[in-house]
């Protein structure tokens, strides 16, 4: 057996005139964790789809050698039979089915066509033990959090006797604890001799866990580096093609008077109306100020934001929203928009965009009234507005009529931001504004946020990444179990301090 | 604003027209298919399909389904479905019959009250769908049964007729020969008013397209190149005038055609250019995003169903007028024709996609197949078979082009 478990050579893949991969090579050593880094659109996911047979043999040029044998996969089943298993960013589990049923879906433990439930649950338990998930195999997957679902996916891969495990952004949706557990698990699998390829935007995780890092940029292999002693800045410079001196654009804050104040805000869960999700939260924003809202998963950040914005979440809401000294009506989304609020959701595909429409119609969607008279829309003005945002925000799209669903994550995020900037709000709530987008596009989003503040708007940024909040915000609130547990301004905020606030329980 | 950005994004490439043209190709598939079907049946029927009287028949016979298709495409764009329109056609036809025949109300008032009844029917269903959150499939399935039952109650299980002449001429009648006929050489005499109406329509269409193009150019947008633009106008002009000349040679323009033309233009414009129309697309495209963008999702959904009810009532009046009787079985399976028209015309099951003109074309495709096959003496089971396969093929084509994109 050779030292390389996988060699991909000269892979070129074109989509309708666009070259997604150009002569890409990748070689993975047996038993290592190999990280692939690159901006969105660099070709990471496409490369993995070529490898796993999602793009079948014949639709790309180049060769794949796995375990010393050339491969020509015609589908995912082919690659799985050889021990290559890919776990996609969007988990592919059936929520209504039990953990055990999911584990053996398509690979059922059956006797003459009938499921052997004893064997199914018994083997499922063994797999769950192996990934360190203490759950009953008969629990429906819907009852598990995202972190645990991710573990179920890995257990499913193990059930297929995997020798090469590919994980696409495995920790993107996980909180720190779950991420930690997942990375430890990968460490353990490495000791069992399983090779992993991991695609990740979280460079701190890459440098922590990987043995080798391959950097892709614009569909080409830029370099392959041993991970030992590799710094995040070094990887970033490969990804963007130049050194990023600072990950955050410079800014001189010009902070004015208080513009918005949320007082004694309490929200109950719609699923369990007796459960308090946000508990007497009070926070304020000033003109030209960028305020952060930190909190662990489940702390109630999104719930707070969405309940303020037109009561889009929650029941039994009480409290006051005061703007410029007077209480305002935010009971409907229309009222919230009219009163100068904007909310950019953490999930732009589900809550932010109409993916089957063009950039133009998405940008105008929240403020069609500004483009119309007596109920009729002026499409030419609409086009002009869309063009203006395309240019000023650097939205990379063939045309403003192009379907938003075909754009990259960073550009989609700019379209959502443009939509809300066009409503000309005084206060913007940005929920995970840089989730799932690459380093370069993040910098652009930060610049846009800075510009908004410079125009005198107040911006509330919700983020799971503490360095992002520290780099961006003038002041940061920490939320824990629905309560504001601390507040720190730029000078005094540190990761340690925020983490202390964020983990403060009800009793402290 | 300043965009001080890392990897040179400010130099976003300029808009190119290439994507626009490819989108147009996908959407124009339906029109090409329609043209091919017309040519095919013209050939199979030795030209009988395109005879003046037959063209007139196709329009009159399908008018009510086309009116339903206009309402249905909006419902489907909004991500819903309406199974009750056939029963609504029957019930409103019965209401109109009771108002005119039994109560002796003047026809304009009777028609108006019938449309109001349609609006109430739509509002009743819209309430459960929009404000109560029951899927439209269920609500309108219930409506299909309920309104059919109410029809039977209203009619006392028998047909009511005959209708006043004005209502009958709305369904079957033709514009008068106000200016007499003129000779068209070998084609014989033709009604001058109809020809003028056709010419005015084409001229207005050309002018509006021209002004739209000029405005777009003024805003620095890309437009179709001039030859293509002229070709499009010419194409529409030739087709419209050919139909109008044939109709003028027969018995002038059917009133329902005039009505249909007004509805088609009005609703097309509404769907594309009104805030309300845009909101329907945004709700069907992504309900949550529309909600969080401040679209009054419930109100829009409600009014879409009210509109469907009004159009179904209009279709009900026209259908009853055509048969000169409101009967208990009127409008059976019309909902399926209207839904099929919308999907053949390019609507997507998930919502958010579709065009009024597409739905009308889809309805005409089925009308031409019906008519052409009966002209060549095909039995009804064959007509059904072909219509079913055409529906499947149309949606398969749509899915295929999407997958390729």
TrEMBL record, chain B:
Cellular localisation: Cell membrane
Organism: Lentzea indica
Stored InterPro entries: ABC_transp_permease (IPR001851)
Pfam families for the chain: BPD_transp_2
Keywords per UniProt: Cell inner membrane, Cell membrane, Membrane, Sugar transport, Transmembrane, Transmembrane helix, Transport
Stretch forming the signal peptide: none
CDD domains assigned to the protein according to its UniProt record, in alphabetical order: TM_PBP1_transp_AraH_like
Name assigned to this protein: Xylose transport system permease protein XylH
Annotated NCBIfam families: GguB (NF040906)
